[in-house]
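Comment thread on ticket #2218

A.B. wrote:
> Attaching the input chain for the structure job we discussed in standup.
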Amino acid sequence: MAMVCLTDFEEYAKEHLSKATWDYYAAGADECCTRDDNLLAYKRIRLRPRILRDVSVSDTRTTVLGTEISFPVGIAPTAFHCLAWHEGEMATARATEAVNTCYITSTYSTCSVEEIVAAAPNGYRWFQLYVYRDRKVSEQIVHRVEALGYKALVLTVDVPYTGKRRNDIRNQFKLPPHLKVKNFDGVFQENAGPEEYGIPANTLDPSISWKDVYWLKSLTRLPIIIKGILTKEDAELAVEHGVQGIIVSNHGGRQLDGGPATIDCLSEIVDTVQGRIEVYMDGGIRTGSDVLKALALGAKCVFIGRPAIWGLAYKGEEGVREVLQILNDEFRLSMALSGCRSVAEINRNLIQFSKL
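C.D. wrote:
> Ran it. Output below, let me know if you need it in another format.
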């Protein structure tokens, strides 16, 4: 079967993954309004193409934190890649290395940060971090990834508590016995009571606040990017606290249901930040024209979560590479059909908000 678009990979994954695994990846919080709106919001945005612009040559390259990547789509941090494919995050790392883009490794990986680096030694990687009640746990992983050559820390700030994902509760979702959160092997006591997503429940620190950004800066020289900002007020605070970037994200609609689609938050955040730090975005990217719309509204780069998992489920490393390649090809075509020869030519004049 020819895989033509990202939806083809989604359908394949839904057919071939177990129900509990599919439900885990697909889940949104509560009624899934925000999860679904992440996708629908793109359909409300129309492009204003310019014509006769000589698009015989096009260039999709861009930079993130000063490093060149082949096109402005990276891999967002998602957990448990070994549920989708036996090589898990090692396959994801090799695919992103081959395509030359950015892979944000999840804390909740089923391969260790060391295994991921060994699998793709030349890959460009950031590490996604949670803050735990036991700060030493967070501290140790920060030092590990810095020593391994990860290039930035992505602090996820929208999970003081885990959102209510109904199907995970119904399915009593648990990692199968042969898999574990590899980065924490031996860190938490065995049989430390009830488990939530592979580690003991109540391990995340709900007291996390802006002062923890300063704490994190005291531990590391790595750039810090905050993931989970949806308002201009918090964007301003992020700039004031000296971070290097923001990922506009609602956690794929898995945390607060009833919040806005990420693409709908982008303009106010970009307008507030005014180029002082880089602004990225995840949530709902399914086509090259979605990427174009996000860049036109001011995102420097976007990140995909679930589609990478679908690629893994289809054919491991090769599947993730295909997903990225399809997005790259679609993005290049959308750019050309809109009259843009390079990422630098993409701006807000391309966007027409429909009257719907």
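A.B. wrote:
> Thanks. Noting for the ticket: The radius of gyration is 19 Å.
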